[in-house]
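Researcher: Sequence recovery benchmark, item below. Answer with residues only.
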């Protein structure tokens, strides 16, 4: 978001791809910070949170929250976005995002789209495309990245975070990859 501010993006369209959602159970138990920095009791708590969240996700009922979208919305206030488009494959994630939108005073700012970014091109165009920990969970990382790149308007930004190195990509730094064969030298993503 800071890069968008520095570049002077004003009233951008923001595309949040794969914001994810979690149960309140997970949110209350999950320790803050990076996993590798957790103490042994925080690791136990984190694993219990993951297990509990998996159980809640397997049930046909229950509600979820969407912390990533909440953070993006809060940070985007300085940019005064025209629209925030939310894309995810899971209906329950989109429902959690829509629930957050209803709780804000800006519900009309948000749109929601169920799309598999590895199989379907994104017909949405945005000034700022955000996809954190999404590419590594798709069936085809190259196709997903290609579709994300195609959604960025000229002069826009693509912000991608991926903790794992994806097959076929060259790791430039922690969280920064390069895929020369099909995307060219200008396509980079990082934390």
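Model:
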């Amino acid at each position: 978001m800071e890069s968008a501010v520095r570049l002077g993006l004003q009233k951008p369209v923001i595309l949040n791809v794969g914001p994810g959602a979690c149960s309140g159970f997970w949110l209350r138990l999950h320790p803050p910070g990076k996993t590798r920095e957790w103490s042994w009791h925080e690791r136990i708590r984190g694993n219990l949170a993951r297990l509990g969240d998996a159980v809640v996700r397997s049930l046909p009922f229950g509600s979820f929250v969407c912390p990533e979208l909440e953070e993006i919305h809060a940070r985007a206030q300085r940019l005064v976005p025209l629209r925030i488009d939310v894309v995810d494959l899971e209906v329950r994630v989109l429902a959690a995002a829509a629930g957050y939108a209803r709780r804000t005073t800006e519900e009309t700012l948000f749109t929601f789209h169920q799309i598999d970014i590895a199989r379907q091109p994104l017909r949405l165009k945005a000034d700022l495309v955000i996809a954190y920990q999404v590419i590594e969970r798709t069936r085809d990382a190259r196709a997903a990245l290609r579709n994300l790149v195609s959604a960025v308007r000229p002069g826009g930004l693509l912000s991608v975070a991926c903790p794992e190195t994806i097959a076929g990509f060259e790791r430039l730094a922690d969280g920064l990859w390069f895929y020369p064969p099909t995307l060219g030298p200008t396509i980079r993503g990082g934390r």
